[in-house]
Amino acid sequence: MSAVIGLEDGTILKGTGFGAEGIVCGELVFTTQYTGYEESLTDPSYTGQILMFTYPLIGNYGVNDETFQSDGVKAEGLVVREACLSPSHHLSTRNIYKLMEDEGKPGISGIDTRMLTIGTREHGTMRAALINGSDDGEEAVRLAREQPDISSLDLISRVTCKEPYTIESQVKTADKKHVVLFDLGMKKNISMSLLKRGVDVTVVPANTPTSVIEDYNPDLLFLSNGPGDPQNAQNAIDVVKDLAGTMPISGICLGHQVISRALGADTYKLKFGHRGANQPVKDLESGIVHITSQNHGFAVEGDSFDDTDVTVTQINTNDNTVEGIEHNDLDIFSVQYHPEAHAGPRDTEKIFFGKVMKAMGGRV
Ligand SMILES: NC(=O)CC[C@H](N)C(=O)O
């Protein structure tokens, strides 16, 4: 089937469509990881974005439903150079085409992803439209230009849970801890990382007020990853302001941006973001560089912590952007990268979640 992608700068690329027929719009973002297909496509942080893999051959192994990070594909669409149609994988009968078809999301292959990535790096992230079932490039450009900027979209309410729910850990521990997890568009492996350490987890919707969280009386408040501009997570920002100093608080990615804003920092949009499985993060105290999994388009303004009680503890060695912060007096710390991985390296998993356990007085 013919398909086309059009960008706001007028770029038009024609290719072969797969997955569902139809039109999707979103920011076109690229990831440099070359595995973790379904983990990325089901990551709710990709809501409002069309995902492009820079690696030229995608889908070499089949889709494993057990590694989904949410209940389905959340990226609006998929752009690849070449998709493998006959993956070799004993766990799966689905290839990447079938996944997109089952999930009702369109994809396009046969695209010069290198050219599109270079264009994105030079111009910055652009709005795009992907049409599967037509090669009308002018229409795709028109639709790309027509859509609002991602910062004006309320994406969190599309992916947060509707009602709170509690998952009890099956791991037996003498002194069970309880975390309230703000679901701003949570990747499943964040809750899994707590559950496997013997922690019970209550997941709450993004609009949950402070008083409800206080009633749970948790050992720690955790803020998840999620889509869009952190400025739009105003309720979570207010809750962190209210509860700072009353209980330990931690978070990942959007959660880190929310905590930073609550502690007085600004956030801004990166030119093209960090998305991949080999982003280098330096711990400023130890000097050690860890390789991390990342997916974000916004970042915390490091200078805005000057004259606050917050220290920037980790930076990205590619561009010196903020990767981790810690409050000097209170049990509040967060990271921009994904220590829970899925996809990507687990180098920081034990360090980060060990610190979360320690903050609760639990077994590390
Ligand atoms: N993975 C995330 O939580 C992403 C956070 C935010 N939406 C950003 O793009 O920066």
TrEMBL record:
Its EC number is 6.3.5.5. It catalyses: hydrogencarbonate + L-glutamine + 2 ATP + H2O = carbamoyl phosphate + L-glutamate + 2 ADP + phosphate + 2 H(+); L-glutamine + H2O = L-glutamate + NH4(+). It holds the Pfam family CPSase_sm_chain. It comes from the Archaea. Residues 1-131 form the Carbamoyl-phosphate synthase small subunit N-terminal domain. Residues 1-178 are annotated as: CPSase. Keywords: Amino-acid biosynthesis, Arginine biosynthesis, ATP-binding, Glutamine amidotransferase, Ligase, Nucleotide-binding, Pyrimidine biosynthesis. L-glutamine binds at S45, G226, G228, L254, Q257, N295, G297, F298. The keyword Nucleotide-binding applies. The active site is at C253, H338, E340. Pathway: Pyrimidine metabolism; UMP biosynthesis via de novo pathway; (S)-dihydroorotate from bicarbonate: step 1/3; Amino-acid biosynthesis; L-arginine biosynthesis; carbamoyl phosphate from bicarbonate: step 1/1. Composed of two chains; the small (or glutamine) chain promotes the hydrolysis of glutamine to ammonia, which is used by the large (or ammonia) chain to synthesize carbamoyl phosphate. Tetramer of heterodimers (alpha,beta)4. HAMAP family: CPSase_S_chain. Belongs to the CarA family. Small subunit of the glutamine-dependent carbamoyl phosphate synthetase (CPSase). CPSase catalyzes the formation of carbamoyl phosphate from the ammonia moiety of glutamine, carbonate, and phosphate donated by ATP, constituting the first step of 2 biosynthetic pathways, one leading to arginine and/or urea and the other to pyrimidine nucleotides. The small subunit (glutamine amidotransferase) binds and cleaves glutamine to supply the large subunit with the substrate ammonia. PANTHER family: CARBAMOYL-PHOSPHATE SYNTHASE SMALL CHAIN, MULTIFUNCTIONAL TRYPTOPHAN BIOSYNTHESIS PROTEIN-RELATED. This is Carbamoyl phosphate synthase small chain. It comes from Methanococcoides vulcani. The gene is carA.
